[in-house]
């Protein structure tokens, strides 16, 4: 890899975009706020809109690649030795960062994530805040949480929350009176995040374990809110939205019946966004239920939301419906 070229405030945004598009890395050596302004100006020259969803994703990947060429340097103590640079040490440590060159976009993501972690995300259903860690999907959308909070709760002694993330759904189930909740996640970062949240909320009936989908044993209720779009994940943020090959959806549906006590229910929280952008049909989803030996008992829908923007994803989300499917073997 070629070494980066050192740049400063005299670099024009159009030149920066041209160089970055050619794979030239740009190491910023000037005032830190000016670097943020340059990044914003570069972004305006890289439109990510397209009438086609697949081209839209491609343009988003290209945009991320180009903007990721603007770098800053983290010193041995994780400080940025630039005029008016913020103290980023806590945010970088929390994200598992290390000294060296880092894309400015990535650093800003660390700072934003750390702010959410410190302040927390208000969750009305808990009358409390959930504190997401870097790389763990933040429950800023409340529709799926509300569905789990209001769905008719059968007689439940034990519940599994599969793919718990921050632990928000496990916490909701515990607050609803479930005596024992086992929350799982394949990501060690998510496990640590969920453990911290349930401890902060004072919910000893929630146990968090690292597992690929289901824990050992059976439960009266198994809940899963998988990524809503089948497709490849190209970034950590994508991993919360895209389910490559529908692996998690297929695994949950295929294993639900074997992990349910007699008379138990599986709750699948899923958006119809994949259907709206042509990645899956409703018929395919219902066929998956049948193939897993599951029958639809009921479906609860959250109110639609408005999303600004003119790209295909924003337009689809304006028609999106998030549903909780109640399933039984």
UniProtKB/TrEMBL annotation:
Coiled coil: none annotated. GO terms for biological process: methylation. InterPro entries: DNA_methylase_N6_adenine_CS, RsmC/RlmG, SAM-dependent_MTases_sf, Small_mtfrase_dom. Keywords: Cytoplasm, Methyltransferase, rRNA processing, Transferase. PROSITE patterns: N6_MTASE. One of its GO terms (molecular function) is methyltransferase activity. It comes from the Bacteria. This is Class I SAM-dependent methyltransferase.
């Amino acid at each position: 890899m070629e070494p980066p070229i050192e740049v400063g405030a005299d670099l024009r945004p159009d030149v920066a975009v041209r160089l970055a598009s050619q794979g030239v890395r740009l190491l910023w050596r000037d005032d830190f706020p000016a670097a943020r302004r340059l990044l914003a100006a570069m972004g305006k020259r890289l439109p990510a809109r397209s009438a086609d969803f697949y081209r839209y994703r491609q343009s988003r990947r290209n945009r991320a690649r180009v903007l990721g060429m603007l770098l800053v340097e983290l010193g041995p103590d994780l400080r940025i030795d630039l005029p008016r640079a913020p103290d980023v040490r806590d945010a970088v440590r929390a994200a598992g960062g290390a000294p060296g060159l880092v894309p400015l976009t990535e650093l800003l993501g660390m700072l934003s994530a750390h702010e959410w972690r410190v302040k927390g995300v208000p969750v009305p259903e808990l009358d409390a805040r959930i504190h997401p860690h870097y790389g763990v999907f933040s429950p800023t959308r409340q529709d799926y949480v509300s569905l789990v909070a209001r769905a008719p709760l059968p007689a439940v002694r034990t519940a599994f929350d599969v793919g718990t993330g921050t632990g928000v759904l496990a916490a909701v189930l515990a607050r609803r009176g479930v005596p024992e909740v086992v929350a799982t996640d394949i990501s060690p970062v998510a496990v640590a995040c969920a453990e911290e949240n349930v401890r902060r909320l004072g919910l000893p009936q929630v146990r968090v374990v690292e597992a690929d989908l289901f824990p050992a044993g059976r439960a009266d209720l198994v809940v899963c809110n998988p990524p809503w779009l089948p497709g490849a994940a190209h970034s950590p943020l994508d991993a919360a939205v895209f389910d490559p090959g529908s692996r998690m959806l297929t695994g949950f549906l295929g294993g639900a019946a074997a992990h349910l006590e007699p008379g138990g229910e599986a709750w699948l929280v899923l958006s119809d966004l994949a259907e709206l952008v042509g990645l899956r049909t409703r018929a395919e989803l219902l066929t998956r239920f049948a193939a897993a030996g599951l029958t639809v008992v009921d479906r609860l829908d959250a109110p639609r939301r408005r999303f600004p923007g003119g790209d295909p994803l924003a337009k689809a989300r304006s028609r999106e419906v998030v549903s909780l499917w109640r399933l039984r073997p």
